[in-house]
Specification:
There is one protein chain. This protein has about 110 residues and is an alpha+beta fold. It has one domain (about 5-105). It contains three helices and five strands, in the order E-E-E-E-E-H-H-H. It has a three-stranded antiparallel β-sheet with strand order 3-4-5, covered by helices on one side. A two-stranded antiparallel ribbon has the order 1-2. Strand 1 and strand 2 form a beta hairpin. Helix 1 crosses helix 2. The longest helix has 13 residues, at about 70-85. Zinc ion binds near residues 6, 8, 9, 50 and 52.
Length: about 110
């Protein structure tokens, strides 16, 4: 099992405190939305001086911290938003199987 570094002090840890299910929306398949469930670890920071007692393992190649979408889905939404913006972008994404509001397509 690989270690992960504490976001506050940088100490590497493999000590598992708990497991969590993280749900991430991904690119649609066949026009249908895809939500993946990832089982991720909550690890204990082993530095006794660190105020961060536990932290959740991150998968930077897949999604950023606190994100509900994968990086590739977020990039696709951003590209459509840049090209079409607003309701037109939201309508195209809905056709592709990605559910977003027109407001999301306007946000940069
Ligand atoms: Zn720490």
């Amino acid at each position: 099992m690989t270690s992960a570094s504490c976001p506050r002090c940088g100490t590497e840890s493999r000590r598992v405190h708990a497991w969590h299910l993280r749900r991430l929306a991904d690119l649609p398949v066949g026009g249908r939305p895809v939500v993946m469930g990832l089982r991720v670890r909550r690890l204990l920071c082993t530095d006794v001086q660190c105020p961060q007692r536990t932290f959740r393992e991150q998968i930077p190649a897949l999604a950023s911290r606190y994100a509900r979408r994968t990086l590739r889905l977020a990039a696709t939404i951003e590209q459509v938003a840049v090209a079409l913006a607003g309701r037109a972008g939201a309508a195209l994404l809905a056709t592709l199987g990605v559910s977003v509001s027109g407001r999301v397509c306007c946000a940069r």
